[in-house]
Amino acid sequence: CDVRVERCWSRPGRDREENPSSEDLHEYALHRLELSELADEAFLTLAFPLQESATPPPMALHVGLPVRSVGFRFAVNAPFDLVASRSDLHEGSLVNHTICEAIPKAFLEFMAGPGQSMTCRAMKLLGAEAEASMLWRHVRERLLTNLAQLACVLTEDGDMAKPSECVERPSNALGLAASQLIPPALLQLSCGRYFVASSGNAAGHGGIEVLSWTHWVQVLSFRGGQWPDGLIASATQQSNPCDFFLPFCAWLEAELKESEQPSELLRSLWDLDLLPAFGSKVKPLRICQGPLLARPCMKLRADWQRWLCEAGVLKILEPRVRMALQGATPQLLEMLTATMPGRNFIAAACVSWHVTALDGFGGFAESFTVQAVLASLACLKDTFLADELPNGCDLRMPDPLPQPSSTTPAARLQWWRELGRWLWVPSVNKVISGHAARVTLHRPKDLMCSSYLGVAVIEAGSRSMTGAVLPELLGKTWGEDPLGWEVFLDAIGVNELDPVAEDEPEQRSLLFMQLGASLCKQDWWGNVLKSGLRVQGYVAQRLRKASATESGWLRSLPIKVEEGQSSSKGSQVRRLQRNICLSDHFLHDTYGRLGGHFLHYVRLPDAGMLGTAPAPSAIETLRSCLQAIGVRVEISAEGLLHVLKALREAGRCQNPEVYADVYKEVSSLNAEAWQIGTCMSKDSLQQAFSELIFVPPSTFKHIEDCTWDEEPMVQWLTGVPALQSHYQRYGPSLQSFFLDILKMPNVHPGFPPTALIAALRNLVQRVEEAMATHKPQAALPGTPTTAASLLESLPDLISQIYCRLAEACRKASVTCHSDVRRAFAQERLLLLPPLPQPEAASTVTARPGPLHPPRNSAPGRPLRTPQASQSEVTPAARVKRCPKRLFAREAWWDVEAQLADTKAANLNLHRFYGELPDADFFFLRVVGVRKCCSRADIAQRLKESMNCEGKLSHWSEGIAITDLEELEDVQLSSYFRPPGWRAPGEEDDENRESDEVLEPARSTFQPPPATAGSAHPPPWRSAEAAQDAERRAAEALEADASRRAAAEARERERRQQLEQLRGREQAQRQQQQQPPRQPQQGENQQRNDTLHQQQTSHTQQESRQRQQQSQPQTTTQRRPQEPILPQQQTQQQPQDMQRPGREIQPTQQHSPPHEAQHAQPARRGFTWSRLRAQQSQEEVQARVQQPATRSSGSQACVQKETGPAQQDEASKTSLEECGQTKQRMRGTRASAWAAFNRRAAEPEVEESGNQEDPNSADDEATGLLDRIESLEAAAEAKRLEAERLRRAVEE
User: What's the N-to-C CA distance of the chain in angstroms?
Assistant: First the structure.
């Protein structure tokens, strides 16, 4: 066997020479094989083209010359036997068969040997077309069989593989698209095959398997590598799973259609992941898992069904894939899934899961399990509220419980109660051994509902109430329908919540505050109607069959309402919040026409809210529920009574039309309406109505305090209203209500004294307003008349009230008489009609003589009166009419005969009210007015009246001097003249008579001296003077504050010096172990000189103080006009302050020499407050300076007897006393008004600051050294005493 390469051209001869560029060069690899089976030397030659071509042309069989082609892409030259026509090979020839058997051998030898570089084209050289003759078909099969063990196929990965290890993609479009979904690596791992490269030489040339159903089953079953959950699971995690499942399902549908046994194909896919599931965490769907649902139930929430899918309860196809397959492969989708599941099927699946899969005993539920349980209960709840039963027969799912035999509501409810025995409900577990509460599953009969009428007792996420249903059920995730949940849980056997139980008070208080707001809302009752008959029946049963305690609790539920209240500034309305009870509400359909917007209503849902008109039976059910919780739903006497109470309590309704409508409704009630909703008798109800009589504009009266017809003026004065003026215009039914039902008298039988006393007070106030108004013809507010009419009719009104009051007192008891007497004694209720009073002296009229003639007047001498008093009254003189008010002690019934012609007779009560019936009985016996007054009695009453102060009024209150005397007589009367005083002109008359001028006697009276900074400014001071006084007071306060700050600074400096001395003393104590240093003679002499100077200074100070005390006190005898010199200020002290034990040091005692040369300005006069302030300041300065000015002998003695601690305590005590003195001055009026003025106070502050001794620090240091020496001497004495005692003990 040899191989050589031959070249040949496609155009031989002359064409090559003429056109060399048109020649095609072909190169072939020749392989010869000797045919030993033949007799002669015969060889088999195979010619393989070396040029690569996508579609190499077929080559012929040669017997020297080409004979024909059999489909091979390589040439064969051998001594074949030909037919007679030499156009074909003889197939029956034995030589030809021998040569054909040698062709596969020679082909394999070439590819395995010298033609290894051409192995990639081996399959392409065989050709895709198979020869029709059996001989050459056999040769082709032998060639493929020999090549099966030769890596001659190019894969998609670029490697060479054996044909037995390769698989070819299908040629049809659906199969090819589906094959593209299989990754080559997954095919190699699952099937051990490689995809043939589409451009490879082996593609489409036979001998290689095509991807088939078997390969797909192996691929879908594989788990491992990059596909731990399989190819389908990884495809579901893609962002768009439709890119995978749409071509896959299209191929699968085509295979099932083309298969003669599609059931066999589906059987092979029975346990394999096939389709994506609804939910990101759900495993792919399998046919063996039960009925696959194409979509979720449209009547249930999708998120609930997603939780059920994740728990494995439901198998629902992924929505996006479902929508894609509906248009692409509808037959496959219908074949594999149930397209439209019902609510009853979902409920049946949930029940089956509770019965077979859940086990809630003894273990805590995982979070996803709890969510699935809640989702299953939510689906069951909606099924129950829709009045359906779980049923899985349509999808061949067995029912956990047999269907009820009867279809009545009671039988269905009993079936649900039996089903509750097999269900699990999550709840809050009790806290055990300090661990937090966790969620567990329990049977319904062991739990208690966590809501009442749809209001949650505990908040979601709370674990405070153990043994209750998980509060998350009432949240938004699970339907946000607490009332529906409560109805469902009650149906499956969960215990009801008792709102009036004593356990869990915090949760029940939360329920108490929230439930009322829900029950009075229209939306809440609308949801009851929307939820169906189950909810309506439960609410009706719970409210109508509640116990008496629970019913009372419901009626008292608080509801926060917002009401508007007009402010006093104008039309602005303030919004106020207050709490009312649920029983204070009314049904709007019934009471809306009566109460308007003044009542609080509960509105029933209408067609606009529900979408359709509610059924009459449902509306009647709601009305009965509202009536059970205290809402007034029917027109009755009890309901109308509460309407009036609500209008009165709110205080917002002042419209009499509203009350008139209510009263008319009461008058039209029949006998049955008086007994609806109450156990009270008709008489009790009438008594209650009689206490709710509205009197415009805004008051309520009892029926006894009202009358139907009365005189208007007396009516508003006494406060007893006449209802005829308010309600007669609303029709005769109002008169029937007041007179027939409430038995109100047509005319008031008689006013009590208290009402008439109130009428007098009211009249006084109204007259005050009438006289103060600037529009007398305008209507007076609160009265049925104008100001001018009221003043004009005032005498008649007063007489009428006193007449009725006398009549009432005649019928009343003695106790009532005492009350009337007390009222007239404490208030000025004795009213007199207006008396003419002149506005000025020029308008006085003729009058009686004066009550008191002038004293010291000459006999026969006429009184000097103003010239205008002797003239006639001008017609233009205007007289002001002022009514008068008197106390009982200020008035009199009549005067003595000698006073009958005086002005006092004008005030006789007998003159005004003597003709009234029982007037003398009333004024003399009841009120206690004096029957007859003398001159002395009138004078006494005048003094008492003038001493009785009162507020300003337009009334003439009390007795004035002008009521008894003429103003000119009063001014000239000797009763009011100062001694030696003469009227202007009298001195000239007397001098002319006596022909001499008498010098009037000098009066001893002198006005008080003008002092600055008075504690009480005179009332006649002007506004500018008051501001100036206030400014000076502020300056005095600032000066006082600056003095205190300076004193505190000096005190801090002194304490710092003391601390330094104490530090030195401590250092000296540490050196006590060393022998004391003997003072030198110069030091002792200097110390003795210092002590001598201190003692001399102290002696001089005491002598000066004794001289000051011995000087006479002449301050009080000095004239106030004389200025007070500075040297006299130290002597001007009150007598009560010069007592033993109190020393007042002069302020200039320690003044420096350079300041004494300047003359100080004269200081203004002192007051008691100034003296006290000066004394307090000097005491403080003396106490501060006292430690520095003590005598050295006594100081040293005291220091030797007392220790350092006691001396420090004494210094603290003195400082505290100084601080207390400053604190007392700080709060007195003397610090503000009686302190020295600023200019006079500043030098004193400087003087007081300079009074400190500059050598005080040296004196204190000397004192400390003395104390150290005394302590050392005492220590030595104690040491000697201890030594003596020790020796005595030893002896």
Answer: 152
C-beta atoms surrounding 98 within 10 Å:
16
User: Given this model, what pLDDT does residue 177 score?
Assistant: 92
pLDDT computed for residue 249 by the predictor: 93
Q: DSSP of 806-841, one letter per residue?
A: HHHHHHS-HHHHHHHHHHHHHS--EEEEEEEEESSG
For β-strands 65-69 and 60-63, DSSP reports them as: antiparallel
Query: Which H or E run contains 519?
Result: helix 505-519
Kindly give, in sequence order, each residue whose CB lies less than 8 Å from that of residue 362, ignoring residues fewer than 6 positions away: none
How far, in Å, CA of 1204 to CA of 1210, rounded? 10
- What is the model's pTM? 0.56
Q: Strand pairing partners for 733?
A: none
Q: What are phi and psi of 564, to 5 degrees?
A: -95, 140
Q: Is 544 exposed, middle or buried (0-12, 13-18, 19+ CB in 10 A)?
A: middle
Backbone angles phi, psi at 267, to 5 degrees: -65, -35
- Kindly state the DSSP code that residue 633 receives in the 8-state scheme: -
Question: What whole-number distance in Å separates Cα of residue 454 and Cα of residue 410?
Answer: 23
Phi, psi torsion values for 344, nearest 5 degrees = -70, -30
On the CB side of 1095, CA atoms within 13 Å amount to 11
Residue in 635, 649, 558 with CA at minimum distance from that of residue 599: 649
Q: For residues 787 and 780, is the Cβ–Cβ distance under 8 A?
A: yes
How many C-beta atoms surround the C-beta of residue 6 within 10 A? 11
Amino acid residing at 893: W
What is the spatial distance between Cα 253 and Cα 257, in angstroms, rounded to a whole number? Answer: 6
Nearest Cα to 722, choosing from 740, 701, 742, 752?
701
- Measured in whole angstroms, how far is the alpha carbon of residue 106 from the centre of its chain? 100
pLDDT tens digits along 273-303: 999 998 878 889 999 888 899 999 999 999 9
Strand partners, 42: 35
Interatomic CA distance for residues 1125 and 1163, integer angstroms: 7
Window from 285-294, 766-775, 807-816, 1228-1237 with minimum mean pLDDT: 1228-1237
**Would you give the distance in Å from CA 1236 to the centre of its chain?**
57
Average pLDDT over residues 851-874: 37
Whether residue 686 contacts residue 701, with contact meaning beta carbons closer than 8 Å, is answered with no
**Residues 555/583, Cβ–Cβ less than 8 Å:** yes
pLDDT at 712: 66
Distance, CA of 742 to chain centre = 49
- Ranked by mean pLDDT, the top range of 772-781, 1073-1082, 1148-1157 is 772-781
Measure the CA–CA gap between 25 and 49, rounded to whole angstroms: 11
* Structural tokens at position 313: 């309860």
What amino acid is encoded at 1125 in this protein? L
SS (H, E, C) 10-47: CCCCHHHHHCHHHCCEEEEEEEEEEECCCCCCEEEEEE
pLDDT in tens, 196-230: 887 544 444 556 888 999 999 999 999 998 999 99
Per-residue three-class SS string for 530-565: HCCHHHHHHHHHHHHCCCHHHHHHHHCCEEEEEEEE
> Which of the 8 DSSP states describes residue 1095?
H
SS3 565: strand
1277, two tokens: 């004495």
In 3D, which of 631, 662, 652 has the Cα closest to residue 562? 652
What is the DSSP track for 38-71? Answer: SSS-EEEEEEEE-S--SSPPP-EEEESEEEEE-S
Q: Which residues contact 290 (CB under 8 A, 6 or more apart)?
A: 315, 397
Mean pLDDT of 1281-1289: 82
Structural tokens at position 1206 = 């006691």
More confident residue, 285 or 971: 285
1274: tokens are 């005492």
Q: How far is CA 579 from the centre of its chain?
A: 17
- The kind and range of the H/E element at 1244 are helix 1238-1250
Residue 35: how many other CB atoms lie within 10 Å: 20
Which pair of structure tokens corresponds to residue 873? 């009254």
